[in-house]
Amino acid sequence: MSSTGFPPPAEYYDVEDGINVCMACGNPRFTLLHRVEHFGFPFEFFRCECGLIKQAPMPNEQFFEWFFNSDLFFSAKESDSEEIWGFYDYFKDENSRLKTSRRRFRILQQKLNWETPRSIMKIGPSTGTFLYVASQAGHQALGCDVSDQFVNYAKEHYQVQIDHGRFEHHGYADGQFTDLLLFNVIENVPNLDEFIAAIRRTLRVGGHFIFNHVEMRKNMIAAFQKDKYFIFRPPICYAFEDPALKMILEKHGFEIQLRFRDIRYLHAEKITTLLRWRWALRLSRMLKIERINFPIWAYPSWITVARRVS
Ligand SMILES: [Zn+2]
Question: How much is the pTM?
């Protein structure tokens, strides 16, 4: 295993937010689920009886500031590491992301009857593909991201606006948005209560909070891969079994309206890297098929549409 040269310092963690706190059920009953080593230092994941899984101690905002702006995240290849902290050669996956965004948008537009222009906020929009697709369809679409590389990329390639910084610190107006989306984000938020409270405040009553998550209940791949499962790595703060997720949504005044499978376009290079199948990666490169996109229900990831009821 290669090394980054340094472990994250102690001040990148919130020692107050450990296994003494369960933000889903309020009655912490945690047991150790996995202890994993990455880059020579350990991370521990615990599971509460209610079905909430969390990293403890919890990484704080400083950790993410560092992580999402580091080369580790943008290119495991460039940082000379095959360990997958972020995504394998991120910007080369643009074609997959655009196809996935088109598909997600088409389904949401249809299921939620987006006929008149909506006011959409997407948190963590990465390169801005969904914002681009939504604005092309006549909606008002704004993003918010902690990475300035994404902000600049989206402006340059898609002419869409992404505000730089943490969403919950931005001071958007009450009820400003009709729909608020996040994909591949909810597992990476350390201060989830504060974050969802800000989402609720900025959504109008009746508006939609739309996100995906990796379902951990009866997750056969997780059961098989154990601590090698891709969820158990540093940027993940939380993972969810459905009952815990429902409790969190209800606590914040949301009601689940819809749920459907999150089909994504992926290529062999991405999949084999996530699964750590080096032989399959080599084989796909030999056959020159490593960059061909195909739709797949991976992980298993679900898209939830929750309505703000109060
Ligand atoms: Zn709990």
Answer: 0.88
